[in-house]
Amino acid sequence: MECIAEMPPAPLDRRPRKRQRLGWDVGPAGMHQIQLGLCGQEVVNAISAVALGLSSGGIVSSQLNQGQTRDGSPPLREDDKDGHYVFAVGDNLTPRYKINAKMGEGTFGQVLECWDKERKEMVAIKIIRGIKKYRDAAMIEIGMLEQLGKYDESRSSCVQIRNWFDYRNHICIVFERLGPSLYDFLRENNYRSFPIALVREVAKQLLEFMHELRLIHTDLKPENILLVSPEYIKVPDYKVSSRSPTEGSYYKRLPKSSAIKGEALFQTHENLEHLAMMERVFGPLPYHMLKRADRHSERYIRKGRLNWPEGCSSRESMKAVMKLPKLQNLVMQNVDQSAGDFIDLLQGLLKYDPANRLTAQEALRHPFFTEGLERRR
């Protein structure tokens, strides 16, 4: 007997439910202006409360929701060695969804393109690995996405969660099906850089939404910027913090620089080499920050400076650092108009010391946006 528990389609209802259910489904939303009433910490607290309610109230446990065998279910298969769900194209994922194609795979699990038989539309379903830590993280993400949806009432900036359910020990999160990611688009176009006007528009949308929510997206990279139209984006994969983020992909790609340059800027997985690349592009790390380093950082920092090139692991590593251009040269190589404003904006956003870094609100008032938009008119 396999257990499936899923909420039927229903409009988003703020009234308390009579009983807890495994999952939820969001109906079509009207178009409204965002009315943000909570500060960042309050939003995070609310998100935490939602997440705790989801994970501690028995909602996740399939043992509390004994379902029945459904006709058309695929054969039971063992997960692969990494805990990923094993499927075949054409399988049903519950009677409601039919698997059409695999869209991608990551640390968390897989994303499948599926046909929603009830809504008669294609959706993207994130199938989380059947491992406790990833299941727990998925429940936090679900709580946060529900909370974000309350503040993005126009459904214009966040990727919308349609439904979620627990299927064969895999949390499945159903999203609207959108266009390719910024990274996919770059790859399909042979990594040709974007026009500066498009970079300005995308950056403005990102800054406006993050500023309104007062949250930090700790995994913002080209793979997590989805294109809805040539000038319109949505952002998925929210892992948020109101203070200092500690999670996220190690291998960061600066979204704006990737869009301008057409490729990842820091292509490394080594900490010291990564820091050396940052110094090469952005300039030296501030002494007042380096001197606070503890003994665990001695491999990277010696006598108040980065241990480079002394700590270099190989000649190839040295070459990888030295071939990188300075930030000013990087922009000048790829941008003609607005280059000066764009360089100044990037320098403000990429300050090493957070105390000296531009806030989202300050960045939105920068001449790169204000004067650039005026020129377009």
Automatic annotation (TrEMBL):
Pfam families: Pkinase. SMART domains: S_TKc. Keywords: ATP-binding, Kinase, Nucleotide-binding, Serine/threonine-protein kinase, Transferase. Residues 97-369 form the Protein kinase domain. SUPFAM superfamilies: Protein kinase-like (PK-like) (SSF56112). GO terms for cellular component: nucleus. Coiled coil: none annotated. Gene3D superfamilies: Phosphorylase Kinase, domain 1, Transferase(Phosphotransferase) domain 1. PANTHER family: SERINE/THREONINE-PROTEIN KINASE DOA-RELATED (PTHR45646), SERINE_THREONINE-PROTEIN KINASE AFC2 (PTHR45646:SF19). This is Serine/threonine-protein kinase AFC2.
